[in-house]
Request: fold
Amino acid sequence: MTGQTASQRPRLVLVHGWAQHAGIWQAWRERLAPIADMTAVDLPGHGGTPWKNAIRSLDALADSVLPALEQPAALCGWSLGGMIAMNLARRHPSRVTRLVLCNTTPRFVAGHDWIHAVQPSLVEGFRRRVSENPERVLRDFLSLQLRGESDSRQTLTLLRSALTDQNRPRAAALEFTLSLLAQTDLRDDLAAIAPPTLVIASDADAITPLAAGEYLARQLPDARLLTVTGCGHAGFLSRPERLSPGLDEFLGGESVQEMAS
Reply:
């Protein structure tokens, strides 16, 4: 796709993860500028978007992204953003041409029939403490994201630099989205998600394990898995050079079957 005119490039809408904001995609946007025209959104209560107390469900949170999908586009979500992207692709298939899922999962917490996840007590502990000491919770979450990173210092710098004072997420948004992560289970929805999908997963991810990405790639109707080695939950930040070729092919219109052959 490199060398195409702006009118020929696909549109790609980017949705960040928990406690982050649109600026987390900056390095990606610079690297992928020849591939697609990109729009990064701030979820409610994150970055420059105010929190709305009326938001009480995943559907309502996901619908905050719909203005960026007024024209059909490829949709990319990281972590919580990936759950939002899957929700939108199921409920508004005409607006989502392709789906890129970065380090995400159909179910964030473990259960008796789902082991590829963090323990519910971890999420509940974050939720209880976030209103009293959000800075501590954010630091703890950053540390969790860095587990498995071969170059954790560089990734930590990138994650910290995105969380400037003016971009700190609001406590109410953090508490709500943690509750959402504890309750959401999208496994029964996967068969109804039609757009071609590229699932990106990391081999050392302590938050959304590789097995969760493998599950998504098996259960989604038209999906391919791209595994990033030597990194944790923020593989798109720490290993962007390994993702660019696959994204170029995928966004350029090749089917997941063609990419896998």
